[in-house]
From TrEMBL, chains A, B:
This is ROK family transcriptional regulator.
Amino acid sequence: MSQTWNQQVVKKENKALVLTTIKEKAPISRATIAQLTGLNKGTVSSLVSELLAEKLITESGTGKSSGGRRPVMLLLNEVAGFTISVELGVNNILAVLTNLRGQIVSEKNIHFSEQNLDDVLPKLYQVIDQLRVEAPISPYGIVGIGVGVPGVVSTIGEVLLAPNLGWKKVPLKQLLVDHYQIPVIVENEANAGAYGEKVYGAGQEANEVVYASISTGIGVGLILDGKLYKGLKGFSGELGHMTIEKDGLDCQCGNKGCWELYASENALLKQAKLAGFADITTEKLIEAAEQQDPQALSLFDKLGDYIGVGITNILHIFNPEQVIIGNSIQQAERYILPAIKQRIEQHAIGFNKGDVHIQTSQLHKYSTTMGMAAFTIEEFFQKTNIHLN
Amino acid sequence: MSQTWNQQVVKKENKALVLTTIKEKAPISRATIAQLTGLNKGTVSSLVSELLAEKLITESGTGKSSGGRRPVMLLLNEVAGFTISVELGVNNILAVLTNLRGQIVSEKNIHFSEQNLDDVLPKLYQVIDQLRVEAPISPYGIVGIGVGVPGVVSTIGEVLLAPNLGWKKVPLKQLLVDHYQIPVIVENEANAGAYGEKVYGAGQEANEVVYASISTGIGVGLILDGKLYKGLKGFSGELGHMTIEKDGLDCQCGNKGCWELYASENALLKQAKLAGFADITTEKLIEAAEQQDPQALSLFDKLGDYIGVGITNILHIFNPEQVIIGNSIQQAERYILPAIKQRIEQHAIGFNKGDVHIQTSQLHKYSTTMGMAAFTIEEFFQKTNIHLN
DNA sequence: ATAACTTTGTCCAGTCGATAAACTAAGTTC
DNA sequence: GAACTTAGTTTATCGACTGGACAAAGTTAT
């Protein structure tokens, strides 16, 4: 059944509008909110007093007068609640406690070696529990838990497939909800990274953002029209398995010539071994490049070129404003970016390359956790508005 | 400035909801509308009487009783206005006069050989004028003109580049608005085709639709989340220039290994010539295939395979519900579809190929014109609602 | 045939939320 | 210190939806 539009909806939307305005322009007065939103002063006053009662915002003394009574400034009450936002990696867990403005209050980072669910889950509970204890007392407490995972996640938060963890059909969201009884969001790591950069990082000004998470494999998160795009059942963004060489290398996904076979960290290390580097890691390769080792430089150059091929495709497909390259490959930034940019400069259609900005992630290792925080915070504000109107 | 939510908005939205319900479920009674939308019976009554006064809907006698008073059935007044919807091809113009339900009332199809704007524009005016004369008298008259063009169109309706017409920076929308003084929409041919299939054709049930228009080149229209996706400045969907062979054939777009170099009609004919067919056309090749000519069959097979490569990529990128193949290649449907489907079956990741339907266009040569009609009709209903509330 | 029940559609009083305008509060400027 | 400005609250009014009463027009059971 379709949504029916009545006064309650109007109120909810206006309240959300006021709250968003405060979030974005704080500190701000009631009068200015009325101006910016076009709402009546009285309406703003009444909505603001409700938000104050709900402890979602606070008054913070008076501002400068501009020739009349001094305004009372309003702030988002960022400590009304906290999120626990987690990035589940292949052999580590990065978890942060954030306030409602996404600011990190505390952080845990632990490593693990066994990837079975039975081994990982207790570790996950452990870091979450630690952060829960550290959270300051607040009106809303922990408003939600978000987990970014390196795999395909269904719309109901089930990890359908996480090859690098060896997981299949793990109902992670359900497990966490059952255990903690608070809202949980499980999302693909690249999707979360994209959203993190959009909300708190390099993509704040843009509405069309492509975030390429390049590490062992390649995952891509798409922000289209300002929102995360998920596809029919949440399986989109498998751009790592876009063919860039028809009938090229065999991929374990079943396809051939997949982008990630040529442009991922795995591909880099494989090429390095072929080139004679023994026992190689990305870090060591970067060191070699810093010593001007021509082989290392050439390897990075080739990698950048291949990354550029995929990004050129992305430009042609989406015509985005911003392409952000994140995850572990970012540490080699200075050795791959030139080749990436050159590839694009020489091969992308003029229209599409004109306005695009290509850069590495601004949040670095926090892209995914911040994205999960953003999801959780957004959901909290939406729910709160619905329940208390 | 952001949208403020007041009673007017509520009314406008509810009125649009009632109108949409009538459009989709006609014939329908006031009581049923109230049930379906969740609106109050009184509210529906009052909105319906406004719509009747505006001639947008009509009453059409009474329906069957279900044990009480017989309902008065409401219909969309599809002849309250008409659209002129045009597909501008490389050497022909297909123009149709449609009513507000997208039904074709009249049709013109003319050919031309000179592609200069100065030669084409008069022809365009000519067909539009003919259709204008043929339009029945109606309360709203011709509510708009829509033109689908084979090229890149900016958000303000300027044809930035149409290689096959040799056009650059043609302000087509402005020209038509100046000439006719009614609303005009100019859109890329593939985008329009996608929307046409979504609204009136093969994509009606789906919310994520990819429409590949394959003729001389390849254009792709994307319906994401039920809406046409355009990218930052309207340049998206250049999927024809997605690289499927790194450092493959040179494309005039500046890139290498572009999909359309391998999977378009142009590519097919080029291969046919190499195979020894002289003076070949797609039609002749189909005839040959009908005679079981092994060379012709193999050419179509190869083409289908290459089309399948691109579509596999599309599945991985978008995870759509429906992939529709349209435009002139469609006539070879039975000789290319098997290879396309085989490629996908063998190479797409399981998740993504699971629920997708792959088929050829249902509207055939009308995909683009119907899409333009849908755009125009949608805009008309939106504007009408705004102005008369 | 008639009474009882059903369904459709209209009407009207009540409610809720936004608005405009009056008003209070608290400064600044000349 | 009088006149002017700006911020924020209060109040009367308006507009739109809602629920219920009611009229209109059927069907069903006896």
